[in-house]
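Need a sequence for this fold. Nothing fancy.
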């Protein structure tokens, strides 16, 4: 990794300038509760609650919310709870905003699982229990290495002293910090919640510090109503769930499709990069193409003169496209090739390969894919004739392959 470039924050889940003309919002198969008299949507059953009474405050770690979210501090206590969703937001917003968001999520959740090929139980086992801050503190700041004062003598300690199950490779003691970090994070992503809790308790005992606090990831999807968002930047998928504009602030006729898009991002991040959901790790064209294509949003009919697979980072988008809406249609086209020729099962394996990757090259930058993504792509993606497809070949021969 080139440290001089710094870590580029991915705005991977922002649904910016989604193409107009998509299917509108409707009642679908939502559960009856009440009708808002607007567009025929029927709200799901749920209940307004206060975290002051239930103790269920929205997590305080901003890293679990992506690039937006007013809910990690100010609006972390007032919420609407339905069967699968927790909708937090300003208590001054209309009740209908909360119910509308919960209804959209409930209506698209099963579709998101079906489209990505993950069962609810499978996803539940992959979803992290703790926020970004908790996971990174315990792994990078404790398990990779730390120092203890033992009767006046400072001693080095790491995961090999704390967890005899950790499969330390030969030469562990001579590995660089980045190499250890990659191994420890991959291990952390593979162990049970119970084992993680034991390691967290060791951290807390060592420093007499509550590292978790309220930064436990709820099992339900956490939606943050963020009134700073608008009709262009309307939704963002996050580790917790998503941030969306309140319906009273910026309603969209295609809100069900956008919610499905963000749910797919939610699944991507929880499965493949649960410790680093806000960093550029996947190629941007892939993560956005997958969400756009599976959500049924517009796909370019022809490659034209565009090379979407050259869009690795958010900054690359502005180099290769003048219009974000056009860019998304071409990301969708690039992903369509993978979906049709590799299939959903192999794409699942790609995401899981990223989760358990021990590659030292942890992040992607402009023009430079991460090893975690590129190696997983090379291992699982196929061409139309069934032969293996390398990421470099897909990039170099994009037009001849997709047309």
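Here you go.
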């Amino acid at each position: 990794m080139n440290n001089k470039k710094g870590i580029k924050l991915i705005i991977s889940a922002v649904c910016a300038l989604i193409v107009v003309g998509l299917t509108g919002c409707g009642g679908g198969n939502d559960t009856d509760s009440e009708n808002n008299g607007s567009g025929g949507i029927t709200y799901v059953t749920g209940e307004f609650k206060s975290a002051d009474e239930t103790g269920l405050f929205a997590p305080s770690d901003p890293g679990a919310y992506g690039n937006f979210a007013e809910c990690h501090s100010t609006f972390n206590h007032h919420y609407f709870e339905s069967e699968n969703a927790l909708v937090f937001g300003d208590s001054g917003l209309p009740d209908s905003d909360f119910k509308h968001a919960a209804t959209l999520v409930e209506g698209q959740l099963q579709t998101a699982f079906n489209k990505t090929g993950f069962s609810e139980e499978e996803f539940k086992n992959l979803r992290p229990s703790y926020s970004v801050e908790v996971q990174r503190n315990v792994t990078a700041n404790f398990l990779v290495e730390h120092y203890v004062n033992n009767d006046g003598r400072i001693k080095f300690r790491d995961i090999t002293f704390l967890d005899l199950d950790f499969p330390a490779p030969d030469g562990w003691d001579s590995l660089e910090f980045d190499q250890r970090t990659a191994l420890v994070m991959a291990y952390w992503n593979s162990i049970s919640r119970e084992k993680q809790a034991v390691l967290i308790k060791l951290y807390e005992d060592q420093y007499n510090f509550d590292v978790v606090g309220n930064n436990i990831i709820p099992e339900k999807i956490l939606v943050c109503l963020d009134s700073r968002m608008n009709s262009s930047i309307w939704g963002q998928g996050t580790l917790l769930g998503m941030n969306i504009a309140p319906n009273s602030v910026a309603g969209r006729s295609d809100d069900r499709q956008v919610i499905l898009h963000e749910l797919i991002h939610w699944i991507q991040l929880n499965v493949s990069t649960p410790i680093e959901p806000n960093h550029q790790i996947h190629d941007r064209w892939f993560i956005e193409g997958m969400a756009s294509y599976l959500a049924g949003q517009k796909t370019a009919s022809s490659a034209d003169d565009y090379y979407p697979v050259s869009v690795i980072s958010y900054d690359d988008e502005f180099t290769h496209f003048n219009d974000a809406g056009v860019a998304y249609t071409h990301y969708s086209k690039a992903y369509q090739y993978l979906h049709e020729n590799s299939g959903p099962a192999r794409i699942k394996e790609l995401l899981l390969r990223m989760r358990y990757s021990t590659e030292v090259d942890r992040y992607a930058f402009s023009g430079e894919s991460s090893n975690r993504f590129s190696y997983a792509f090379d291992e699982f993606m196929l061409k139309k004739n069934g032969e293996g497809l390398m990421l470099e070949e897909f990039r170099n021969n994009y037009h001849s392959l997709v047309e």
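For context: Confidence is low (pLDDT under 50) at residues 1-38.
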